[in-house]
């Protein structure tokens, strides 16, 4: 397993991380993702660790806390320095007026509850699951800095932030000397390249590593979807398509056609090619893979240890290219002084 620095920090993380959204199976969305129990989770964790994949990503809202609890049970008995835990909080987790957001009240409670469910004394990477515009950035960052100084959190990140959300937060952290965000858990895939327009240049400039969620485009780049064919009965898209990032069918199948060509050239699966393309993109620190079973996990682990050729990358780039919104198409004309990271 290749290891990379998490943004501009001294912290090394595996190129692939394991997402636990399939653990627990509670609620309409997460039951469609999977319902992995403790026994199955322990087996998947064993496979990951054997492959050198040592970071496990969760969130308090995954199956109403059950995913964190199952992950904690699956890791029980292992030396704490053998694995890394990343998790998230911000979204509503309870009925009370203060059981949501990034206030001091909610974050302290959320972190303590996550530590209890995970059965650990500290979280390696803690991320805000979304931006809370109702709470002053200073309150959020000072609280997180206190939690770092208390030894409960090691590194900080965010998820699903806009460029100005992230840049404002970094500027405030720098102003007061508080712990800085070094990770941004963001959606990025061959059929979702919006990350490249503003967030990737920001990440390159400010030293924020991408922790990529849904790298297979919400299950659309697994190799099961084909132009003119019905959606497979086993696809979770039947129940979850409306929750995930939208994509036009013509665009999707144009990318899938290119993936099929490259998969045939490399002898790899469509999913492995899609993941490997991401692993070669600037600012990407780790790609979060998920799996409902051992077969899916082993397939996804096959995305590392090799690289697409520049020609194959160019073919996928061309197939997945879209017209940039303003002001990015205008800036492209000034690229020799305002280059993009890609």
Structure description:
The protein is α/β, with parallel strands linked by helices. 39% of the residues lie in helices and 15% in strands. It has 13 helices and 10 strands. Helix 2 crosses helix 3, helix 2 runs parallel beside helix 11 and helix 9 runs antiparallel to helix 12. It is globular. The mean pLDDT is 94.
Q: How many strands in all?
A: 10
Question: What is the typical, i.e. mean, pLDDT?
Answer: 94
User: What portion of the residues fall into strands of 2 or more residues?
Assistant: 5-15%
| Range of helix content | 25-40%
| Strand order in the sheet with the most strands | 3-4-5-6-7-8-9-10
Radius of gyration over all CA atoms, rounded: 20 Å
What separation lies between the terminal Cα atoms? 24 Å
Give the H and E element order. Answer: EEEHHEHEHEHEHEHEHHHEHHH
The number of helices is: 13
Structural class: alpha/beta
| Overall geometry | globular
Biggest sheet: strands, sense, closure? 8 strands, parallel, barrel
Low-confidence stretches: none
